[in-house]
Design brief:
13 helices, alpha/beta, 24 strands, binds nicotinamide-adenine-dinucleotide, 31% helix, globular
Length: 454
Amino acid sequence: MSTHADVLILGGGSAGYSCALRASQLGRSVTLIEADQVGGTCLHRGCIPTKALLHAAEVADTARGAEGFGVRANVTGIDMPTVHAYKDSVVGRLYTGLQGLIANRNVNVVRGTGHYAGDRTVNVDGTAYTGSAVVLATGSTPRVIPGIEIGGRIVSSDEALRLPEVPTTAIVLGGGVIGVEFASIWASFGTQVTVVEALPRLVAGEDPWASKALEKAFRKRGITVMTSTRVTGASQNSDAVSVEIDGDATLTADVVLVAVGRTPNSAGFGEAGIDVDRGYVCVDDRLSTNHDGVYAVGDLVPGPQLAHRGFAHGMFVADQIAGLRPTPVTDALIPRVTHSTPAVASVGLNEAAAREAHDEITTLVYDLAGNGKSQILRTSGGIKVILAGRNGPVVGVHMVGDRIGELIGEAQLMVGWEALPSDVAPLLHAHPSQNEALGEAMLALAGTPLHAHS
Ligand code: NAD
């Protein structure tokens, strides 16, 4: 196999493999260098296994609450080996499928750790691979807190996914997306969870309305939420782990999850002459680095670290290399879903950003109390819509509630297509569905509310 390819990709995660598949579709020869397994964090240590655990957690909640629906059930415990077998079978099937897809597209996969050496060259175990174009797609790894080493009872999300038993008590450091999803999983499995967040609210990237609704729901679920609280140290022994908060008080638990963000895997790029800023690779709006013909994609590039952004970056760069002049990926239009119970989903601007961008805005919150399907599911929450001006377009949609993540597709179309409420209001929403809540919000904003007190 030649060591030169039209497109040489370093890293086979969401951004790297999507680039490989698209470049090959476009008739380019492709070499993909991967140190571990194609599919990367999303498939093996991120999105897919976490969402499998979240589904098992939902099953536990459903079974525990079954009596309230007239179904007699008795939850006698969580069998973690079987939970892991289920989760691993989902990952395994998708991994097999992905390997088949990559082989089918004639992508040359090189197994090994690649080091970018400049001059469109990547060294792997003494062999130099070159590309007419090079795509850096090495992703990110969990960030650590100085002085709080991962090991033993202190885990990152990588280890949290494989815990052999359900902890009786857990402290989650960081109330961002990862922290909130694990807090939700463990609480459903019966763990007593405390989330410690340095900022004044959970999921601080979301609209404050969503953070408030999530915190209220978490407290109702028995999850302790400590905001504006910083962890300063941790110590452990064979029985427990303790964390020091704000320099004095101490919390103790079986397990501490450190979920304080992810760091781009850019070691060595700066030495090879690539411009790097605080670990992130500097790119222009077409994802080109300062080296001619060298691109960076996914979590390496500043912006939301989301697998679907990685997919979009990878395909964009493949199209760009093929000379197709694709439209750049706009971070503001990327949908975000935190798959906790309740879920938080959003797209577009939050209220503060909308106020900054527009002279006048209109907001409306539609409460899920008025939505039949949400009542059937016994979930609460709501949908907040933000319009530019009085009549639109829709510039932001924020949602909180069980299963609400599935509504993000329509919300994304509204924001992406700059829809006016009067464009959407005449489109029927199936009854009874949670989707109707979005339809009702649009009816209300168009001045023709149906199931709303206004
Ligand atoms: P994050 O940035 O979303 O949240 C980390 C939180 O930790 C922040 O709120 C921060 O204020 C807090 N923090 C930092 N230092 C602290 C300290 N010493 N004490 C207490 N709190 C502290 O990061 P994350 O949750 O680790 O997730 C990493 C990335 O992965 C994010 O970009 C996220 O969007 C992505 N991700 C997405 C999904 C999804 O789409 N469902 C799921 C998992 C991860």
